[in-house]
Amino acid sequence: MAEEEKGKKEKLSFVPNVPNILTMIRMIAIVPLVILLSKWPVHRTLSLILFLAIWLTDMLDGYIARTYNQITDFGKLFDPLVDKLFQTAVAVTMAAIGRLPIWVPCFIICRETLMIVGGYLLLRNYEMVVYSDIFGKLATVFYVMALTLLFFIPDEPAWIRHVIFIPGTALSVVATLNYARKNIDNIKSRNKSTA
To answer: Of 90, 96, 98, 106, which is closest to residue 54 (Cα–Cα)?
Structure first.
């Protein structure tokens, strides 16, 4: 049992390659971004530059990891985790300054809490790690695109700020249902093989 726990920790330990370093830099950069956004609209341009830099870094580390065979279990787990932190932090801050409908951060927080709790239970009980799939990645892209538009669209009409988040929200629901389906199937397969 101790050997299994040691192997699990080693598998998810930080590997200091370029993609993982970029992931950590991206996580650290979320703090100054939130500070800049909270002073809206004084630092709008600087906030936008940092926001886009974080997003582009996310695409860059994924490209490097795939192209140069630097994919690690740490990266597969923490890259989407940092994406979730990024989306949640920006959505909550944008809602706090009145640029974003409150239902958006509420939905994101509820959905990510469900994913984190579910992922923790799967890891603890079945040693299964939940990785992002195509629906989750597409949801992230649509959310980030919608958040980017918030830097440009006017305060009125307010309904625009609701509509631009519908595609990302719909894809998030699909991704969550798909994660549930896949992991239920995996658990059933494991139970059959151990029966």
So the answer is: 90
Structure tokens at 117: 């709790």
Question: Is-above-0.70 flag for pTM?
Answer: yes
Our count of domains for the chain comes to: 1
Question: Please, which pLDDT band fits residue 195 given cuts at 50, 70 and 90?
Answer: low
- List the CATH number of the domain containing 155: 1.20.120.1760
Helices and strands, number each (H, E), in the chain: 8, 0
State how far the alpha carbon of 85 is from the alpha carbons of 101, 145, 153, 155, in Å: 18, 16, 24, 26
**Nearest alpha-carbon partner for 148 in 89, 62, 90, 63:** 90
Residue 2 confidence (pLDDT): 47
Domain that holds residue 108: 2-194
CB 169 within 8 A of CB 107: yes
Closest CA to 108 of 127, 87, 93: 87
